[in-house]
Each structure stands twice: as structure tokens, then as C-alpha cells.
């Protein structure tokens, strides 16, 4: 009998050790200690044994039972510790389940990045309407009466107003600058604000020219500020766009609504200013115009140019996005082509 | 514009250690943008002066000669040549192997190699002028003529580069014309030289501006002094058409024009030098011995030098004799009466026409001439003095026997010097640092200002060449000072900061939240479309054309209407994308326009009505799913974007929507937008096949943003809630809203699970599955309580909605 128990024990241990998952172990537990197990049979047969034998077999049988319970417990812990939730083989190089996601337009992304930067500098965000008038788009901004930009070859005038003048001649705004006077008329000075938006020019389109494109303009108006304060705005823009400090230089430039006006160049990021094909070997790339607000523009905004001064800068968002991502055709921005838009997350 | 550094050196001596790149850089920083620095000698590499030592017959060809030539190297070279004027002892032009020449003056340059000609080896080539870019300077007399420097009287040395021998070893600064538009004084080398002299603080060689004296008058009548401020006429006799001297031809060539003949070249040279346009008339063609500056008669004709036959109008200024127009004033000469081959006496015009008229006429006839380019920038009347003085001295030099037989200076309007005061205080504040008075006076004086200083103020007399609009206020003078010091030398100054209040722009914030919600949470792609929209899609969407605003000159005939809705753009976007994607969703936020009255800034300005619209579209296979997707996006929008919620109602079907499946978005009884399936008609008309679409459009200005986030905290349930599912059988006419309304007050939470119609469901009925949660506020529900509650709910559903349990 004792030998039989020993065999049961040995066989049981083997079975427990061979169990490879919790379910299998549970089956083994039932088999070894359940009502129909060989061990139970031994225990049931105790009554027919002589008392001595009964005691030693009984003790042994109980020992085996306890040992089984112990072994099963240990084995169970082992199995949980080494368990996997997945049965069988798994190819971990398979791609993960795609995150479904839409996206803002890359121009909007750039615009919001810049808004964040300018908000942190205390600038308000303003938005002018798309349709403006000659008065706000040109007259207020010190454009000469016969400036070529006023011609219908350059500006989209509205039908029925094209031969009128001033506030009666309406157009899709050709630039954002007209919005500056609107804001100043409404809010007065001092002021610091940005006004991003889409502008329209009657142009022949190609990979580098568009009829509708986006600008981002910033203006600060205050007393007694120097034009060199304007550099803070310029550097804020470029640092936000390119993620690091970018060297800039201001040089002579001319725009009707500024005096003095500047062209602002940034160091070519490809060659670090040494000169390469991208920057036409100059080391610098023209990125934005800027300048001190012209006294006539301040007057149009009912501000006294002897008291107030200010600094504009205007950046072409399309061009910045193109530089940021290497986009080579400006027309893609208005294409609504998802093969293009889904690249920007 | 091309600036020749040789030309510049006539007026200023620049420091010898300056590189041309440095000059280009400094000009770009201080004055005008230099786009390129071009070495004109570069294309003449390995083309040198050689001396012919021997001219021998070619053994195999009568037309060829075998020359022995000294090209300045250790040994003499043998060159085979077919030139008609090969002379031993003469200096000629030799292209060595490796140089690039234009074969017979035609086509692209070809790289030269040592070769054999009819069996005789030849080192390089003795060239004709057309083969080595010299035809403008040394026009060939016959096809086989080679350039003979000895005959031409050119002083040169054996081995010297031909560019240097011909005076073509120049450096050209190519200047961006746009950056010159406000500087009429820089449209000539003299003006650029003045800037360079100011930048480098070196002396500037001022030109003589003396006019002829004591000559008889030549009659000149100016009928339009507003358009013609000054007209000088000099009659010059005893001249004839001939080639200009080489030095003049090379300078004209280097500056980008072509030499023609000495009479014309003199006028062009003066234009390039001082920017004073001139014109020479054949004086024998001036009928009536009188010049009249007048407006053309409507329909009057003029044949220009470029063969263009103009029909003039009364807005065009012309220079006429007693009978006919001779010249389109300030723009281009007439063909019949300008310098001709037979000309032996000229009337030289040096006049000043005002900019607006020139601009109008130039644009009208599309005649962008060198002369017009200068006049349209606004030229000071004093410039004619320089122009006349320079031209007459050139005539004397080139035609020593010429006679100035008459001169008139009709000068109705004189450019007045601007006089501007600028204070030291203004300069210090705006420049952000104090600049020495001596420095300021030095800069301004070098630029031609006359400056007097008293009581902290500079009294500046602006030179006339800057007084035609360029410099008119003290800010302009500030700009001159700042740029000549150099913007790069001013220290960056921080922006002053005032912490008075934080920026709180709820409308702006809402606009951004809406876009971010749709992009990030609803997984839609933002798109931009043009504001002008193809009529095809406007028609497809059924948008009313009557209300729409039109462009006067649209990008294309079918793109005349500005959008009154974003839906047509959505249709176009679906049409464009559905060949690449089975399922997608897009949105656009933009302004749309409608006839109406709207004055955002001042009452005098009345614009069409603008609406800030937000639109979205969902394209895919199953129409019903698409609709509920769209509805879900709109339903959750107020919560996630934090604005006052709206409701849905069928009030007015949008033109683009399906017959049945549409809803208006309603805020306080007002329709602020719509959503729905796009009608099959609209899809078909847009060319969209095999795909369905749902869309929405709403006016975001009608939304009322909350000033902050609006999440509300509710206590977590203290006792567990019981979740129960019910499957109901109801009539088709029973809507979810009825069911929800009936039992909403009895449950903690109620969710729609699904709707089912099928075999097991009788006709006219549908099955609705819902899931609800019930619970007590003060204890855990017992099974008895649960049973009682559920029975109550089922009873209410039966009573109010006729629902039976399935």
C-alpha cells in the first residue's frame, strides 16, 4: 500500500511539474486529489486495513495529499509568474493598430504655434474680414493713388465696384495690413496684436505662386519704442517655426506703410550661413518684410504720430510651412487633397 | 538694373582693398538688394591676345592659312585659320584649348580642343568677333573677318585676356528693380556711386551741370506743364551716324544695353550715367522748326521705333512738331523722325515728365522702356542740367566739329527742395541709442542734404533728387541715418511689458477649440478651399446665386462667384478625394459672403455680409451611419468646446440635403446651421459616384462661448447602480425621443443600444434595445426593489409608447 502511495506521489509530482498552464494544472489537481482520484481510492480503502497499517498508510496518504496541495500551489505561482496572456506564437514585428486621427491643416498648425508664442508675449489675436475696401487696403496704408497694386491685374475687385474709389471700391483683401488700422480704430493705442489670415492676389499660379495664400502679421504700437524692439517679434516667430534660435538680419527695404522699412533675412539653415544652393550662395534667405509704421498709417488710425510709433512684421505662412517641411508646391495648400493633408499630424 | 563697377569708378574712388562681394553685401544692407555679382570676364577665360608671326599657305586647302602665333607662352603655336584679314605682325584674338567659343556666332558656346584641320594640327582658333562675344564692340565687316586689334587701334599686350583688352573685364552688380522703386536717384550709376561714397565715406566726384549760354532759342511750347515740368532742346549740327568709341560701347554693353550708333549711344550713356532720359530727333524732320508738348488727339497715330503702330487717346502726352507727333513723351521715339542713317543735325531733348502720366501711358501701351522706368519713379527737374551738360560734352568729344546752334530751356515747374526738421531727441528715442551730432551731419551731408543744427534740431534741406516723394517726413531722414549706420549695429531692445490684465478672447478661443475638437477628437481633416467656387458645385448644392457676390476679374470664367456657403467646396472636396479613399471626413472653417450691408470699421465703408462658417463632410459607404456620425459630432460639440448647447429640429430643409434625412441646428428658436445626408441629386451633379456623404454647416458667430470650461462635478454613487438591458417592440411611428422622454425621470442613466427590423419583427413594428441604470441614493437596491422598479418602467413604456417586451 505504501509503495502504491509512493508511486501515486511520484506520478503526481511528475504531472504537476508537466503542467504548462493554469487550466492544465487545475485538471491535474482534480485528477490527483478529486473524488475519483487514486489517492481517494486509497483513503477509501483504509477501513479494510489492520490498525497499524491503517495509521501509517493514512498518515502517508495525508502527507501525499498535503504535498500535492503544496506542489500545486508552488507550481501555480510559477505558472502565473511566467504566464503570458497570449497563447501560442506571436509576431511582435507586426504593426500596431493605427491611431485614427484627423489633423489641422499645416497652415493652421503653424498659425497656432505662432499664436501661442505671441500670446506669451502679451499679444492679442485679431482677425479682419476677407472682403475689404480700397480705403482700408490701400488709401489708409499710404499707397500712392496710382500704385500698381491697386490695378485689377493685381487685386481682386468685386464686380460692380471696380470702377469706384475709396470705401466704395471693394476687394478680397490683398494683404493683412489693412486690418491693423481697423484694430487700432477699435482699440486705440498702446496695442500689440497679431492678425493671421488669408489674402488674395490676381496672379498666374505655379508651384511658387498662389492666388490665395496665408500671412501672419504682428504689430506693436507704443510710445517711445525703438525699431530695434521689433527684432524680438521677428526672433519669436522664427524660433517658434524652426524650434531654435535663428540668426536674422535687417536691411533696407521699402513698403508704402513703413518708414523706415526693412527686409528681414534669416541665416540659411541648410548651410548655416556659409552659402549653398538653397540660399543662392548668399547664406541668407529673405523671409519677411517689416518696418516702423508710417506716420500716415497712424493718422489713418486716428493716432498722433508724434506720440505713437510702432513696428510691423509680416510673414508668409505658406512659405514658412514650405521651408519647415520641404513642400515644393504652394498650390497643395488649397488642394484639399487628403493624400497631402494626412501627412501633417 | 545692371550696375557696372567700371562705370561707377568714373564717379567715385572706392578703397582698393574692397572686394566686389563686400560691396554687394554693403549695398544690400544699406541701400538696395544686389541679387548677383557677375564677373563679365569669366566667359573670356583662355581667350587671349596673340601676335601673328607668320601666315603660311595650307597644303590641302586654299581657303585656309597656317599661322604661327605668339600667345604669350614659351613656345609659338601653330593655328589653322580661314580668316580673310590675317596679317603677320598684327595682334589678334586667340581662343586657346579649353576656352568656350560660339561657332560662327551661332548657338551655344562650345569648349575648344586642340585638333587637326585638313591634316594640319591647330592649337586653338583665331576668332571673329561674333565667335567671342565681341560683336557689339567690334561689329564684323564681313563674315570671314577676324578681330584685328592692331587695325582697330586697341592697345593690348600679347597673352593678355581679351576681356581686359576690350574693356569687358568688368563686374556687374545685378540689382533687384523692386528695391529701387522708391529711389529715382539710383536709376543711374552716378546716384549709386553717391551711395557708395556715403557708405565708405570716400569723396564723390560731382559732375558739371552747366548749360549752354548765349545761343539762339529753339521754339518749344509746353501745353501741359503738369505733365511736362521742363523741356530742354539743343540743336546740334554737323553730326553724322557713326560707331561710338570703344570705351563708350563697352560701358553701355556692360550696363546691359546695346550700342547702336554714336548719336543714340550718347543719349543712352547719359541715361545710364545720371538717369536722365534723352531723345534725339532728326532736326530736318521737325516741320515748322517748332516743338510742341501736348496731349494727343483721340485717334491720332504714331509709329514707334519698335514698329508698334499706336492709336493715341487724349490722355497720352506726345512731343510734336507743327504737324504731327514725333515721340510718345518720355517713353519711346517715333520711327520716322528719330535718328536716321542720313541724319546730319539733331534736336536733343532732355526733359522731365511727371510720373503718373508716364505710368498710365506705359501700362496702356505695355511699353516698359528704360526711359519710362525712370520717369515713372519721379525725376527731379534739376536732373536735366546734369543730362544736358553731360550730353553736350560727349558730343564735343565724339564729334569735335559739331555745332550747338540753338538751345531752349522751357522750365515751367521746378522741383523744390523739401525742408525738414528733425530733433536729436526724436532720433535718440527711435534709434534706441544716442548718435553723435557729427556722425549724423556727416551721413546726411554725404547723401546730399544741407544740414544746419540749432536748439537740438537738425534743419535739413533735402537734395532735389530725393524730393520727388522719396523723402518728405522726418521719419524718412531717420531711415537714412539708421540704414547708413547699419541696422545690424543697433542692439536688440526688449519689448516693454505691462502686466495690467491677461488676454481673454473667448471668441478666438472657441474658434480654435472647434477646429481642434473636429481634428483631434472627431478625427477629421481640416481643409482649405478657395473663396471663389466653380458654378458646377454651387448648382449641385442648390445655393442661391442671387445672394452671391461676384469678382470683377475672376481667376476663370466659371469661378466668378464668391462662396455663400461652404457646402459646394465640400462637394468638390469629396469629388476630388473619393477616387483615393473609401471613407474620410473633412472640415473647413472660413468666411462666406452674401449681398447685404455690413460696416465693421467705419460707416462710410459698406461691405457684403460676412459669415464665419464651419462645415464638415463625412464620406463613406453606409448613408445612415454617416448621418449619425455627423450627428454625433455636432451633438458632442457644445460639451467639448464649451459653449451654450443647441437643439435639433426639422424646420427648413437645406437645399443640398436628402429628402428625409436632415436636421436644423437650432439655438433659441433660430436656425444657426443644418446637418443631413447630401442628396443623391447633389452627389450626382457633383460627379460623386458609389459613395454617400453626410454634411453639416453652421454659423459659428451664433455660438455663445462660455468664458471657461464647463465641466460639472457630480458625486460618485455611494451605492452600486444596477444595469439592465431591455428589448422593446414598438410601432414604427414611435421615436427614440418618445421612449427617452417617457422614462428619463425614472432612471439614473439611459442609453440607446440598437434598432432592429427583421424576420422576427412583425411589419410596421421595430425592435429597440436600450440599456439603463437604476439605483437608490441611500441604500443598495434589493432584488425586490429592482423588480418593482423595472416593472414600473415597463408599464410606463407600455402606456406611453405602446411598447411590449420582446
Structure description:
The complex is a heterodimer of chains A (345) and B (806). With 345 residues, chain A is of the alpha+beta class. Chain A has 2 domains: 2-81; 106-341, BirA Bifunctional Protein, domain 2 (2-Layer Sandwich), CATH 3.30.930. Chain A is built from 11 helices and 9 strands. Chain A has a 7-stranded mixed sheet. Chain A has a two-stranded antiparallel ribbon with strand order 2-3. With 806 residues, chain B is of the alpha+beta class. Chain B folds into 6 domains: 2-40 and 170-200, Phenylalanyl-tRNA Synthetase, Chain B, domain 1, CATH 3.30.56.10; 42-165, Beta Barrel (OB fold (Dihydrolipoamide Acetyltransferase, E2P)), CATH 2.40.50; 220-410, Phenylalanyl-trna Synthetase, Chain B, domain 3 (Phenylalanyl-tRNA Synthetase, Chain B, domain 3); 419-489, Phenylalanyl-tRNA Synthetase, Chain B, domain 1 (2-Layer Sandwich), CATH 3.30.56.10; 506-702, 2-Layer Sandwich (BirA Bifunctional Protein, domain 2); 722-805, Alpha-Beta Plaits (2-Layer Sandwich), CATH 3.30.70. Chain B has 20 helices and 37 strands. In chain B, the strands form 10 sheets. In chain B, strands 27-28-29-33-32-31-30 form a 7-stranded mixed sheet, with helices on both faces. A 5-stranded antiparallel sheet of chain B has the order 5-4-3-6-11. Chain B is elongated. The chains are: A alpha+beta (345), B alpha+beta (806). The interface between A and B is large, with 89 and 88 residues.
* Count of separate DSSP helical elements of chain B: 20
The total beta strand count of chain B reads 37
The fraction of residues in strands of chain A falls at 15-25%
Number of domains of chain B: 6
Q: Catalogue the unreliable spans of chain B.
A: none
CATH topology of the largest domain in chain A: BirA Bifunctional Protein, domain 2
CATH class of the largest domain in chain A: Alpha Beta
Multimeric state? heterodimer
Note the gap between the termini of chain A.
76 Å
Major sheet of chain A: order of its strands? 1-4-5-9-8-7-6
Helix/sheet category of chain B: alpha+beta
